[in-house]
Write a structure and sequence with these properties.
Blueprint (H helix, E strand, L loop, with lengths): L2 H25 L62 E9 L2 E8 L3 E5 L5 H8 L5 E2 L31 H6 L2 H9 L7 E4 L3 H4 L20 H8 L4 E6 L2 H11 L7 H21 L2 H5 L2 H6 L9 H9 L7 E5 H6 L1 H12 L6 H8 L8 H6 L4 H22 L10
Length: about 400
Amino acid sequence: MSPNVHRRMLFYLSNLTMFAIFTSLLTGFNLIRFEKSDQLTRIGVPRPRQTEAEWCSAVLLGHADSDSSTVEDLFALMPPDFEQKFKNPCFYDACHQTNNGTKRKLRCLPFFHVLGVDKCGSTDLYYRIVRHPQISPNNGVLHKETSWWSWRRYGHKLRTDTHHKESFIDYLHYFDGLSEKLEKDSSSYNSITVDGTPMDFWDFTGWPQIPQNVNVGNPKILTPHLMKYLNPYVKFILIFRQPSERLFSDYIFLKLGEPTAKAFHEKVLKSIKMFNNCCANNTVRACLFSRELQIKMPVRLHVGVYSVFLEEWRKVFDMENFLFLRTEDYSKNIKGTLKKVFTFLGVDDITETMMEDISKGKRVYETKRKKKSGTMLSETKRILDNFYYPYLRKLHALTNDDRFLWQNK
């Protein structure tokens, strides 16, 4: 490391230390409360924070330890000051390292998340949304999923772990497409970008690795708290599907067993038994946040317990941060749904011709194997509907929306 970079690190570490001490004195390390801005310079653009130093990525070098039992302490980072000339939350990194030394580089976080849910049409919805000329996809898997908040940050995959843990800088790289576009073209200041990772909504199983949760029985800090700290004005789009139908589609899509109604029925019974056994000695929350249980259950029963996960997000973010959609409505009226989405995001109107073109495009990631498998057994449907019913009642209470009782599809 060059002497100049070392001096910069010392300067920013000093600033960050004072920032952390000041914050902890004010909040007792309860970093869940955030002040809402009552004045925005443009729709969706937050007022800048008043800090003396620019954000510096060099301070993260001391956090990068892939063998540690914990992950980066995001609360130890100075939250970025977003540039007011951009609609998207972007900021300058004063210490970006290149082959030619240190330079000032624009970095971006997502303006919004298509937060889920798996097998609810979120992928089809995502690809239609990013066809809007003002919205840029990310550089993640299929230009859609970064998987950072739920998996890559903790060294997780779907059912396995890896020693490699991605850093916050790694996360920022997923949005370099927009940051480079903004640096090159000043007329693109209204462009925004998105993270389309559905697991971020429900997979909190990495919580024991978060420094504030070390040696505690129940998590104090989860993904929503960390997102709010770094990106307080972010928006979320959630699309829900009747959970029993979602589970059958998920089972077929992920090839979790023989693609037959009978095989699915047997695995549902086993999964419900495992979940109930866990809940006999633990809270529902603890069981849903258990990576061991999620991996062992033959089907992903937990993903459809929407209300428990949404409650965690609602503890931190206000209702105006969310747009709730329903798969069944989206399938019947794609164009109308997209109009709601674009209004929610505050992007420019597009021509009727372009809207028709986006709406009538071919559906993506339909579970074709499900057509061959037919439908689940009526007995399986009855069992699953009974299992999910109390959670749907809670979802209805959280959203104040009768659609999410699925009484009339």
